[in-house]
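Researcher: I'd like a structural prediction for the single chain below. Treat it as a standalone chain; there are no partners to consider.
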Amino acid sequence: IGANVQLVQPKWGECVEECCGREFQKFLVHSPKDVSVLQKLAKDANCVVPVIGCMNFDAPRYNTKENSPDGSLLTVLDVLDFTNNAVFNYLVDKAQIERVILTTDDRQATTIVHHRLGDARHPLSKNVAYALTLARRSYRQTGGTQQANAFRRQVIDNPVRLSTDTKAQIEQAKKRLVEIQTNLKEANNEMGTKRKTLSDAKAELNNITERRGKVVQNLKISLDDYNNKKEEAQEAVQDVAEVDLEELERELAEKEKAVEESEEEKRVLMEDYKQKKDDYVEKKAALDSFIDAQTGLQGELDAYLAKLDEYRAKLEKIEKDIETFSNARAIREQERKEKVEELDSQKNDFVEHERLAANCTTKDNDGNDIGYKTWEEAEAEKDVFDINKGFEAADKFMESLKNKINREDNARERPYDEVRDLLDEAKSKLNKAKRTLKFAKEPNVLMKSLVKKRKEAVESTAHYVQKEVSGNFAYHLSKKPGCGGVLDVDYTNRLLTMKVEMKNKAVTNVAALSGGEKSFTTLALTLAMGELSEAPFRAMDEFDVFMDEVARKVSMDSLLAFARGDEEVSRQFILITPQNISGIDAKAKDIHVFQMQAPRA
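Model: Treating it as a single chain, here is the predicted structure.
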């Protein structure tokens, strides 16, 4: 197929490869019978069996004007030139070259593809399948979701096969190869020079190290000789009264001069050694830098350093979080301590109040409680008795009070302690009932919140499902020239409305369609809803009975393409039809044909 296609505008070569590059290496024959003949020829010639397509060679070239986008837009068809009508018709059917637009502006591509479902405010979006840009990106609209994907890897890595000047490409590749070889040779020569320089520096360093060792050794010998002579001189001074001091001083001066000369030589050698060492370090650093630049390890090092900075930032964040949690924990511990101290204080106050209450209780002669008066009652009766009346009057008054207390105590049915215990028990039951009511309300509130979230999720899912099914329905209808459609779902009234466009004629009542059009519309709806179904089996019975030949071919191709999609690999499709299936490659690995025997006469 690719041998019969010519690229008119070379700059769109990669976009054309992305659109229909998979079809260029296929072979095209006239009928299914020719498919078997070509396969046999390939096997006899010990060649790889090619991918073969079937197309009517006698059919005229398709009229794509009605199904093409706006004339101001550039399509893949506009940048190609065909010498064969069958190849033209095949690429229109398989790759939709008349509906794939080319643009240099990614923003324009996004806008056009986003409104391709038929918005009247965007006429440029009509009949647009998807868009390709020079930035090697493709923009598609699937339902309510827009996808922007990079070109296939084989398109980016391989040269354009439809280039008009192949010789120029070969010459350019040869020049590029010569240039790369020249750069590699120069790099190798420079690396050899650097290695030789490094070797010389190492040899010089070893020589300096050896000379320094000799000088140090001679210096040590001279110092040892000097120390020995000094010790001999001291012994001679001690043992002999007369000694030649001038000779000793002369020898001492000679030795000191030798030591100074050795020190000066040592200093010169050390400076030379440091200079050579610095040269060695500098040359070694230059060589290391050159090797790093040649091997490309700097990029990996930068990546590792970036990851290290990222991990350091995460570690600092974690340490800050730990510090925050530690401070919060210390605050909580302090609050808990204060609460414990407050509870202890309240407990002490409660014990004190109990003690005071016990002290306020009146005892009889046997030590039993006979009741008590509140503070208000005591205040009200504090002026009842005058203490100036004497002890006898006070005794009579106390006796009358005791009698009154006894009468009051006898008049009561239950003592004070029993009433207080009953009150405490009632308070405990009331608190328990309040806690039970609180615990019973919490699941109810949680369930209401979950029901609300689930309802919102269901409504959102239903909305996007309607958008995606509508987009899929329009996509499958558009595979037949001049067809389109939209689905409208009213979940409240449980109503599904289809707006179908057949041969540029809009129809809202499906009953107005012909039998073949109804079958094709039903098939498109089934495929649109099938993409959201998780059933492992799909079966369709006599779906093409009322279709014409064109609609039957489009429907069968759509079904096969849908069944071979990446998302349908794990599912099995069962298609039952009484029609002729000669247009299907029955020898394909993923197709199994079971044909009933003809009825006997």
